[in-house]
């Protein structure tokens, strides 16, 4: 785990210096249910530079998917973005009208969903679903749109794209469907792709192929990517930066190699410790005790307090996302600084 | 008359068979819907009125001797020729007081509706239970017939039966039973198939209890909640079907009109503006059916194990 | 596909044969037409002659075989009452019933689909709740009652629409149709609405449930994430998915629409075959009853077959499986 290939210089500074593709500041998305207000996303901030990949990591229910949908502004009632800003190339998406947002979706900002078996409409042919995407944003003839679709399919490694265009989704395997979904996302060469666990539902071999394809595409087109996942190994191999979410908040943020080598936040620490690995054979896996708190009524202070081995009395006050080290932020009063120094 | 009582029974009994939930909880859950509670009250009133009709109705509408043809087609609120009664809802073409006619008509409609629904329930539940318990060929034969019959509309099946047997009240009951048994059979079989895989049936089988005992004492009570729900709905359907058949002139005899026949009798006068002969029996029918459906809807919500908290 | 079709055809033929036995036995084994058709004053000789003329003296199985043999040639016997071929009687009245049933079906889709769509897209609005309450009434109210109310309101009180008959008709392809003249249309409106009522409720419920279910699907969210207009998302991505169950059920319901037209035709004096069957049951005109039941059963089975095939055209997933 510690041995990642990603040893590039900290990207945080570079990203902030240039005009970042995406800058999320203090995003808050709440769901107003009958049982009460569910604070699914409660203060999330991060930045993604051009051509960079940010891995957004967290357990299920930590708010990472809602963050992705908030960026797309596809939060349906009873959910609502209640605070913060989403700066896309300097424009705040939170203030855009639905129609302005629509022209960006699938065009400048694309999204890839988790379950490829569910993302394509079962009763529409692949060509219909691709051509409509092209024509939603550009006035092009059917023939040109079809050519674009064919090229996109070829780009994601689908053989004989002309025939495949005339197929229905059920005639594809899960891996192929995800490639189609990626091809659709790439149709307009977007500046940002929000990928919501796009490989979780796939076999490991297919997962590897798709990761490689995506990495290549990002590098060649300069597309920024928000990669949402709960799989630390995927982030280790793919992302430049990592943001760890817990109970609707980013608790740790920094260069992916540094964070995985020496996490600052006790939660990240526990998360990495609970991943089984060959190096730790025979050693009992560490686990984080307790359960994630209910987002309906979060406890006062640090949300991780009740499960944290380092919790002290001052944790009753919610810590801020503090830059403990250069380019390393953590939301904790008692971070694992000693391990960083020893490392 | 006994059938009228039987009609009340499926509505109030469920709590007794639901061993795991006390009667009180069932009641309070049921009462959560004010609409359903209203429906239940209306049904109770209707049943009481139907039972007490001979004592509270102003007139015996079936006694042709007291009907005065001179009082025919009087408007609501009119006085009879001899000044003895006020026809609050008017009279029909034979001088029959509509209010009395409706009260007696309700008796027939409820008896035929609830009675045939009850018989259909007995037949359907037994066959459904048998299909689920026996399985194999018995199951597939019974379910084939059920599927085939459910694919045909109720009115067609009813017409077929009446075409075979001729028209009479008994044959209307038979027709309704034939139309409805399949719904019960399908429901009971579905539930019983789930229930019979449960441990308590296995336990009963291990004890070598007689088969009928396992069927009726162990399996059937656990199939009751869905049976009660569709039973309620089917009573409403039976009443509507009886009214329809009577309206078409295929049902009860003209001397003892049910609601459907009362409506049919008034139909020809409706075009000349004498609306009340059809209208008031129609309202009585509507209120009865809607009230039963409201209760049934809420019963389904309360008794549905998937929705239970 | 052809194997599938063949299997379905054989199945259908089996059902028709089974129904012919049930109908024949049911109609001919129970009840005695002699009582009705022959005057009680007739002497023994006349009675026997009449029975022989009607073929009622033969054993039942022989009567059935004769019936079946003739039925295959399109001869379902002569009406005792009209003294005309029963099949011809039915066929003469069938266009009127078909016209009514088609009008009701189209009406149901035309009214039910938009209402259901609205109720599904805006489930919490007051109008949606009204629509759903209305659909519950549409389900539970007896058809004849609603028919009477329609007549009372629109024909008697308001005087807008005629209450009985087909009105002015135009002859096309040898049969008369009401929907081609204004007068005919006004006559058609109320019966069609009456017959459609149950189906409107059904379509509303199906559409609403379908919309609510489909809107939650990932592929709808993905369609929105592609930047499609709300119009296209609703009317292509959502609509095409809910069309499958709606078309299937409406199609399957067409048979029951024809059966239920018995009631509507009786109320609005619509001269279709439903009115004929009621009259025939009343006088026990067996050949007509048999002819009606056989024709309706045949239509039923044909409709089921056609809907099955249509379903496979609409849903690409089924198409593959059946190949």
UniProtKB/TrEMBL annotation, chain A:
Q: Which UniProt keywords apply?
A: ATP-binding, Cell membrane, Membrane, Nucleotide-binding, Transport
The record describes its membrane topology as: Peripheral membrane protein
Q: Name one Pfam family in it.
A: oligo_HPY
What InterPro entries would the database entry show?
A: AAA+_ATPase, ABC_Ni/Peptide_Import, ABC_transporter-like_ATP-bd, ABC_transporter-like_CS, Oligopep_ABC_C, P-loop_NTPase
Q: Which Gene3D superfamilies match?
A: P-loop containing nucleotide triphosphate hydrolases
CDD domains attached here?
ABC_NikE_OppD_transporters
Fetch the PROSITE patterns from UniProt.
ABC_TRANSPORTER_1 (PS00211), ABC_TRANSPORTER_2 (PS50893)
Highest taxon of the source? Bacteria
Subcellular location field: Cell inner membrane
Annotated ABC transporter domain ranges read 22-272
**Gene Ontology molecular function: any one:** ATP binding
- Entry similarity comment: Belongs to the ABC transporter superfamily.
What name does this protein carry?
ABC transporter ATP-binding protein
| Organism per entry | Falsiroseomonas frigidaquae
UniProtKB/TrEMBL annotation, chain B:
Q: Where is the ABC transmembrane type-1 domain?
A: 106-296
Pfam families recorded: BPD_transp_1, OppC_N
Q: Which domain of life is it from?
A: Bacteria
Q: Where in the cell is it found?
A: Cell membrane
Ranges that cross the membrane: 35-56, 108-133, 275-296
Record membrane topology: Multi-pass membrane protein
Q: Which UniProt keywords apply?
A: Cell membrane, Membrane, Transmembrane, Transmembrane helix, Transport
The record's family statement is: Belongs to the binding-protein-dependent transport system permease family.
Supply the name of the protein.
ABC transporter permease
Q: Which organism is it from?
A: Falsiroseomonas frigidaquae
UniProtKB/TrEMBL annotation, chain C:
Sorted alphabetically, which keywords does the UniProt record give?
Cell membrane, Membrane, Transmembrane, Transmembrane helix, Transport
What residues does the ABC transmembrane type-1 domain cover? 94-307
Any Pfam family: BPD_transp_1
Q: What membrane topology term does the record carry?
A: Multi-pass membrane protein
User: Which residues span the membrane?
Assistant: 12-31, 100-121, 133-156, 188-207, 242-269, 289-314
ATP-binding as UniProt keyword: no
Record SUPFAM superfamilies: MetI-like
Q: Where in the cell is it found?
A: Cell membrane
This protein's source sits in the domain of life called: Bacteria
Q: Which residues form a coiled coil?
A: none
Cross-referenced InterPro entries? BPD_transp_1_N, MetI-like, MetI-like_sf
* Family classification: Belongs to the binding-protein-dependent transport system permease family.
PANTHER family this protein is in? ABC TRANSPORTER PERMEASE PROTEIN, DIPEPTIDE TRANSPORT SYSTEM PERMEASE PROTEIN DPPB-RELATED
Q: What is this protein called?
A: ABC transporter permease
- The scientific name of the source species is Falsiroseomonas frigidaquae
Q: What is the lineage of its organism?
A: Bacteria, Pseudomonadati, Pseudomonadota, Alphaproteobacteria, Acetobacterales
């Amino acid at each position: 785990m510690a041995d990642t290939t990603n040893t590039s210089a900290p990207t945080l500074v570079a990203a902030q210096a240039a005009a970042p593709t995406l800058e999320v500041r203090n995003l808050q998305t709440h769901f107003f249910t009958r049982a009460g207000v569910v604070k699914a996303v409660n203060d999330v901030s991060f930045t993604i530079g051009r051509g960079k990949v940010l891995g957004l990591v967290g357990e299920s229910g930590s708010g990472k998917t809602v963050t992705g949908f908030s960026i797309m502004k596809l939060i349906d009632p009873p959910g609502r973005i209640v605070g913060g800003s989403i700066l896309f190339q300097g424009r705040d998406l939170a203030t855009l009208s639905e129609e302005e947002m629509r022209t960006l979706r699938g065009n400048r900002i694309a999204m890839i969903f988790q379950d490829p078996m569910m993302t394509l409409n079962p009763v529409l042919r692949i060509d219909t679903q691709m051509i409509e995407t092209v024509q939603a944003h550009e006035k092009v003839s059917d023939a040109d749109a079809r050519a674009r679709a064919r090229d996109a399919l070829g780009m994601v490694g689908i053989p004989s794209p002309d025939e495949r265009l005339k197929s229905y989704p059920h005639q594809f395997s899960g891996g192929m469907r995800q490639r189609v979904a990626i091809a659709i996302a790439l149709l307009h060469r977007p500046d940002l792709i929000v990928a919501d666990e796009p490989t979780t539902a796939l076999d490991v071999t297919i997962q590897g192929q798709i990761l490689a394809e995506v990495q290549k595409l990002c590098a060649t087109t300069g597309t920024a990517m928000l990669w949402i996942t709960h799989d630390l190994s995927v982030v280790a191999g793919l992302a430049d930066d990592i943001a760890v979410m817990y109970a609707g908040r980013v608790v740790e943020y920094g260069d992916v190699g540094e964070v995985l080598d020496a996490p600052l936040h006790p939660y990240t620490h526990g998360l990495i410790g609970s991943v089984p690995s060959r190096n730790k054979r025979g050693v009992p896996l560490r686990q984080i005790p307790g359960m994630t708190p209910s987002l309906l009524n979060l406890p006062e202070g640090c949300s991780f307090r009740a499960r944290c081995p380092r919790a002290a009395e001052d944790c009753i006050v919610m810590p801020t996302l503090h830059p403990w080290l250069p380019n390393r932020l953590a939301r904790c009063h008692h971070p694992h600084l000693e391990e960083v120094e020893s490392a | 008359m006994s059938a009228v009582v039987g009609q009340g029974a499926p509505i109030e009994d469920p709590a007794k068979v639901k061993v795991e939930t006390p009667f009180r909880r069932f009641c309070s859950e049921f009462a959560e819907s004010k609409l359903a509670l209203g429906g239940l009250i209306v049904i109770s009133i209707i049943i009481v009125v139907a039972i007490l009709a001979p004592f509270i109705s102003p007139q015996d509408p079936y006694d042709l001797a007291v009907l005065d043809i001179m009082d025919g087609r009087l408007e609501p609120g009119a006085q009879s020729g001899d000044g003895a009664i006020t026809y609050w809802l008017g009279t029909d073409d034979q001088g029959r007081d509509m209010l009395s006619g409706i009260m007696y008509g309700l008796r027939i409609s409820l008896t035929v509706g609830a009675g045939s629904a009850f018989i259909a329930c007995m037949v359907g539940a037994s066959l459904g239970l048998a299909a689920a318990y026996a399985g194999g060929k018995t199951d597939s034969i019974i379910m084939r017939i059920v599927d085939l019959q459910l694919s045909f509309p109720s009115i067609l099946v009813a017409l077929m039966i009446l075409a075979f047997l001729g028209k009479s009240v008994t044959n209307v009951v038979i027709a309704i039973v034939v139309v409805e048994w399949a719904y019960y059979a399908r429901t009971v079989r579905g539930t019983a198939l789930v229930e019979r895989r449960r441990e308590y049936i296995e336990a009963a089988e291990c004890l070598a209890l007689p088969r009928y005992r396992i069927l009726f004492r162990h399996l059937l009570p656990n199939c009751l909640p869905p049976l009660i729900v569709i039973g309620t709905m089917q009573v409403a359907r039976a009443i509507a079907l009886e009214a329809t058949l009577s309206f078409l002139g295929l049902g009860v005899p003209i001397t003892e009109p049910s609601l459907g026949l009362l409506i049919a009798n008034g139909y020809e006068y409706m075009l000349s503006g004498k609306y009340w002969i059809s209208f008031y029996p129609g309202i009585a029918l509507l209120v009865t059916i809607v009230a039963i459906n409201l209760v049934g809807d809420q019963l389904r919500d309360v008794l549905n194990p998937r929705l239970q908290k | 596909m052809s194997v599938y079709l063949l299997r379905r055809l054989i199945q259908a033929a089996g059902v028709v044969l089974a129904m012919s036995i049930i109908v024949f036995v049911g109609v001919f084994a129970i009840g005695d037409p002699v009582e009705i058709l022959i005057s009680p004053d007739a002497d023994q000789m006349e009675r026997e002659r009449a029975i022989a003329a009607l073929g009622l003296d033969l054993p039942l199985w022989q009567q059935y075989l004769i019936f079946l043999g003739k039925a295959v040639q399109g001869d379902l016997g002569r009406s005792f009452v009209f003294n005309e071929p029963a099949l011809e009687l039915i066929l003469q009245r069938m266009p009127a019933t078909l016209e009514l049933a088609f009008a009701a079906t189209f009406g149901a889709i035309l009214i039910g689909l938009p209402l259901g769509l609205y109720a599904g897209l805006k489930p919490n609005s007051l109008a949606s709740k009204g629509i759903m309450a209305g659909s519950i009434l549409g389900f539970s109210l007896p058809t004849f009652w609603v028919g009477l109310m329609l007549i009372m309101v629109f024909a008697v009180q308001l005087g807008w629409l005629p209450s009985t008959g087909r009105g002015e008709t135009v002859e096309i392809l040898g049969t008369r149709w009401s929907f081609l003249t204004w007068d005919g249309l006004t006559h058609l409106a109320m019966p069609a609405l009456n017959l459609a009522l149950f189906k409107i409720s059904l379509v509303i419920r199906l559409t609403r449930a379908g919309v609510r279910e489909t809107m939650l699907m990932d592929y709808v969210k993905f369609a929105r994430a592609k930047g499609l207009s709300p119009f296209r998302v609703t009317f292509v991505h959502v609509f095409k998915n809910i069309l499958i169950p709606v078309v299937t059920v409406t199609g399957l319901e067409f048979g029951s629409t024809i059966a239920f037209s018995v009631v509507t035709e009786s109320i609005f004096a619509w001269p279709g075959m439903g009115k004929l069957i009621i009259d025939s049951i009343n006088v026990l005109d067996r050949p007509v009853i048999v002819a009606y039941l056989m024709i309706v059963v045949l239509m039923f089975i044909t409709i089921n077959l056609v809907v099955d095939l249509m379903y496979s055209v609409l849903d690409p997933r089924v198409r593959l499986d059946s190949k």
